[in-house]
Design the sequence.
């Protein structure tokens, strides 16, 4: 009885204790609800991102069109000095012609056979601008800025169109475009067989343009150019080119005051070449006058053609002489001079064998006394960098009994000459030096400074102080 009572009391106490303990509810339903909510959010975000990506890809590939006026990310910007300048040329006042050009460019992009590169499309037609347009001798010329875009990317392309004088828009033909260069100048050269050609240069509005034809080497040892350009608005130069081929490409110079902004030759030819029967006859005469080591025929031709091409002189009327020839380290070496009729004398030193030969010297000399001058040039190593050395090759004039070299302010030192009337002198490559030739009577025949190593051979001999004697 007592045992049963005790068991009943214990059971009652345990139940009361159990009722006082809080039992948590099952967590699974709450977790399931939260996970379902997160899954819906993830699906929504995934769909949104996919839509955005699809739209970006579509826009960037021009599948989804943006309005032309929509802003884009600029790439390969055209020069602001041209884009921001006011339009120039007589065509700028022909609004009907310009409207037709804009319409054609913005609808079929096929004016004169021009098409945007790759996937680029023409943007806002209202931003198509005529930068320059005129009727010139034999041509109508237009330089047009056309906004292009691939989706979010945008750029302005500068495009040349050319047609006959007074041409309608449908008669204009594509003639070239900008390549995204930094030069603030656009150039165009048109040549044709049997008819006059044309060169056009459009630079900044406040610049001066010159277009130089074939050079003239004066008897006093300077180089001059005839300016072929006439202005057609500020910063624009136009030159009518002769029907016959030039000896070299016209050279464009665009400057602002004393500051040179641009200098480059106009490619496109055709140009006369120093080849053919006249060259063969000239080489025959040259070989008769060589008194030194005979040169290989191929090397001699390469040397002479290089000198004529570099100086832009024709075969006819130009005197070429080999003043010195030798074999140096198993290679042909020569000092030759070229002289146009009534002009200065240009000395060229070269060495090597076909096809590896080098130009070591270009020096424009006054015509008077050129044959009595000693000539020297700084030797360079035949390594890829053509490293300057401290050696100077010296060639004496034919009548010289001796030659001296004066380095800086030091006393002159006699140069030892070999049987070819040439020698080598030690001159630090960063020091000035002067060569002087004397006759057997001790009289001075001539004196010539040793020019510095020429680092840029892009211009003509006589243009830089390193390539002329006259200051």
Sequence:
């Amino acid at each position: 009885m007592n045992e049963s009572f005790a068991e009943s009391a214990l059971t009652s106490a345990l139940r009361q204790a159990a009722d006082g303990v809080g039992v948590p509810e099952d967590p699974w339903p709450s977790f399931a609800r939260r996970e379902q909510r997160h899954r819906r959010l993830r699906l929504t975000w995934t769909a949104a991102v996919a839509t955005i990506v699809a739209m970006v890809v579509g826009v960037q590939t021009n599948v989804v069109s943006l309005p032309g006026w929509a802003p884009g990310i600029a790439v390969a910007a055209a020069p602001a000095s041209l884009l921001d300048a006011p339009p120039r040329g007589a065509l700028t006042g022909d609004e009907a012609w310009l409207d037709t050009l804009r319409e054609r460019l913005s609808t079929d992009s096929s004016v004169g056979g021009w098409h945007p590169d790759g996937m680029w499309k023409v943007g806002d037609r209202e931003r198509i601008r005529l930068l320059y347009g005129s009727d010139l001798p034999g041509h109508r010329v237009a330089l047009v800025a056309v906004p292009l875009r691939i989706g979010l990317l945008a750029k302005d392309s500068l495009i040349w169109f050319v047609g006959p004088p007074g041409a309608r828009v449908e008669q204009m033909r594509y003639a070239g475009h900008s390549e995204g260069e930094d030069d603030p100048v656009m150039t165009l050269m048109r040549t044709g067989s049997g008819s006059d050609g044309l060169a056009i240069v459009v630079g900044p509005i406040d610049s001066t343009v010159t277009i130089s034809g074939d050079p003239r080497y004066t008897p006093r040892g300077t180089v001059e150019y005839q300016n072929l350009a006439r202005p057609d608005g500020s910063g624009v130069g136009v030159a009518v080119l002769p029907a016959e081929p030039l000896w070299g490409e016209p050279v464009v110079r665009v400057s602002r005051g004393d500051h040179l902004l641009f200098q480059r030759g106009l490619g496109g030819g055709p140009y006369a070449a120093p080849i053919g029967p006249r060259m063969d006859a000239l080489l025959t005469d040259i070989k008769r006058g060589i008194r030194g080591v005979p040169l290989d025929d191929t090397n001699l031709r390469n040397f002479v053609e290089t000198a004529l091409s570099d100086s832009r002189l024709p075969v006819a009327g130009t005197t070429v002489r080999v003043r010195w020839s030798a074999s140096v380290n198993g290679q042909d070496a020569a000092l030759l001079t070229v002289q146009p009729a009534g002009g200065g004398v240009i000395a060229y030193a070269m060495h090597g064998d076909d096809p590896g030969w080098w130009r070591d010297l270009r020096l424009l000399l006054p015509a008077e006394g050129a044959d009595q001058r000693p000539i020297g040039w700084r030797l360079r190593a035949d390594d890829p960098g053509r490293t300057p050395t401290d050696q100077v090759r010296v060639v004496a004039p034919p009548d010289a009994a001796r030659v001296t070299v004066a380095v800086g302010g030091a006393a002159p030192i006699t140069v030892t000459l070999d049987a070819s009337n040439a020698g080598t002198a030690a001159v630090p490559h960063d020091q000035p030096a002067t060569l002087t030739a004397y006759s057997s009577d001790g009289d001075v025949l001539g004196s010539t400074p040793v020019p510095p190593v020429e680092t840029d051979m892009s211009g003509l001999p006589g243009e830089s102080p390193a390539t002329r004697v006259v200051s």
Q: What stands out?
A: The first helix runs from residue 2 to 20.
